[in-house]
């Protein structure tokens, strides 16, 4: 009984842990979708230096962002700009952030992850916020200058990008207007839109609605990140409920087998009770109470064991997977991984289900086994062993 309860809790927690790991890269920026538009052309070979958009990305204008906001199910749609600066020895990533949008997207990083200085003021230009690792690598502090695309910017803040916000991580954050000027774009152009959906279950419908309004787009969602996590993550996320049910059924079978054996060993005792006047209902009730007590003990032990197993599962490395931007030493289209523990959480629903399985399994198995034993005549029960 304890084994069945422990399996149900552990397997359910494992599946939910993989699902939470998939959601983490978007959770830090409070977005359910990151929308980009494929360029559709053949990328030209990089031969020079300077600031440019990532290869293969086209732009959206403010009118298209408004159309995305009007899609049913969308709460917020915030535009941002990601650009690259190819220098003589390194390539850095730059995020253009709308100073007036701090609830979703990279603006949320500047609002929640500052470790020094401040964020941008609305309308402010020629200022920058640096990632902590970039600032440490180049020994740059608040109040100093940083050069991007041949222009100097005053460093007003430093942020530490948490693992759960890696989808919007950059080396340098600039006001959106400055980033657009560096990239040679108009004041109404961006190449990323961070979308917050009212109900995360509607992300597919929202993506379809956005495509219908603005044309073909590419969308990063929690489901797409689950696919990146590989077969183990997909199987665990999709079939954790089935696995938990199988674990519960296994617990019921084990309960039935154990209690049937327990009752069978006490057939002579049952015969003696019936010989002195006990009715079948009395015998069944007595064994049902005993089985209920065993079920309570099994549930307590199983829940404790399941919580311990879930705690051990939290040490499984679960990388946060995001589309990797160019690093300080080059650029890459690969997947960036940050090894962290699997975010396993034990839900009250799983604990309640485990307790129900143990109690129902023990009580049912004890009752059925006792009824089977009471079908024997007292005389036969007394000589059966």
Automatic annotation (TrEMBL):
InterPro entries: ABC3_permease_C, MacB_PCD, Macrolide_Exporter_MacB. It is found in: Cell membrane. Keywords: Cell membrane, Membrane, Signal, Transmembrane, Transmembrane helix. GO terms for cellular component: plasma membrane. Residues 1-212 form the MacB-like periplasmic core domain. It comes from the Bacteria. Residues 1-21 form the signal peptide. GO terms for molecular function: transmembrane transporter activity. The chain crosses the membrane at residues 239-259, 289-313, 348-370. Pfam families: FtsX, MacB_PCD. It is a multi-pass membrane protein. Residues 243-377 form the ABC3 transporter permease C-terminal domain. Belongs to the ABC-4 integral membrane protein family. This is ABC3 transporter permease protein domain-containing protein.
